[in-house]
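Entry for S-adenosylmethionine complex. Fields follow.
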Amino acid sequence: MSYNLSAIFSQPLKPPLFEPGEPRFWDDPYISKSILKAHLDQNHDGASRRNDEIEKTVRYLITSGLLKTGDRILDLGCGPGLYSSRLCIEGMKVTGIDLSLRSIDYARVQAEKDGHNIDYVCADFFDINYEGNFDAVLQVYGEICTFSEEKRDVLLSLIHRALKDNGIFIFDVSTRELHTREGLKNRWYLSEGGFWRPGRHLVLEEGFDYPENDTWLNQYIIVDEDETVKVYRLWLHDYSFETISTTLEKSGFKVEQAWNSLSGELYRKGGDWIAIAARKV
Ligand SMILES: C[S@@+](CC[C@H](N)C(=O)[O-])C[C@H]1O[C@@H](n2cnc3c(N)ncnc32)[C@H](O)[C@@H]1O
C-alpha cells in the first residue's frame, strides 16, 4: 500500500481506530532485519526485554510453579526464541511461532547450535489450530495490546482452544500510565539509512491518542527518495487490571495471578505493565 505525497493530504489527519497501515512490518524483508537486531540489542528494550530481565522472568515462572519441567509450552510471537530457548533448557517441550522468517531462522540456527529440540514455526498466530495440546501459552511483551477488541477476542479463543483443560495463559499488557508517561511522538528526521530503510529516507513520526478506547497509535510515514510514501501504524490498546480481567472472563479464563512484570514484581495500581497468569476454566 503506497501513496504518492499528494495522497497524504487527502487523508484524515487522525486515522480511524485500528485502521491498518502497511500490511508488512514484522515480516518485511528489510525491516525484519532491523527488528532482529533490536531483539538482540542489550542497550535497549525496543523489541525484546534485555537478557537479565528475560532470565529473571523464566526463573520466576518456574519458582512460582506456573511452569515446570515436562510442560508443553506454546510461545506465541516467540521472536528469535529468547524465552523458548531458556524454557527448553529447563526441560520444557516448546513450540515457538512467529510471523518473522528472519527471527525464526535465527532461532532455528541457535537451537541447532545449542542442541535444543524446539519446534519453531514461521506462521501467523491467527492461523493456529491446536486443540488441548499445551499446558501453557506464553505471549510476552504486550503483543495482545496490538489488536482491536474484535481481533483480540479471536486470538483469545484460539489460545483457549490450544490449552489443555486447566492450562495457563501467561502474558503482559501495557497500561495507560506507561503511554501517558512516554507522551505522544511528534518528530521528523532525514536518515541516511537505518531502521526503516537501507538508503536515504524521510521519517514523519506522529502519535495519536484515543482516550475513550484506551488506545494509542504510533504512526510512521516513510518517504523514499523516489517520493514513494508508506504509512506504518503500530496500534496499542492499553488495559487496567479491571479491563483485562473482564476481557479474560468473557473468553473463558480466570485471572489467577497479576504482577507488574512477568519477572514477579508485586502488583500495584499505576504501574507501566500488568503481567497476568490466567487459567482456562
Ligand atoms: C514485541 S515482539 C516480542 C517478541 C518476544 N515475545 C520477546 O519478548 O522477545 C512481538 C513478536 O510478535 C511477532 N508477531 C506479531 N504479529 C504476529 C502474528 N500475527 N503472528 C505471529 N507472530 C507475530 C513479531 O514478529 C515479533 O517477533
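NOTE: The chain has a mean pLDDT of 96.
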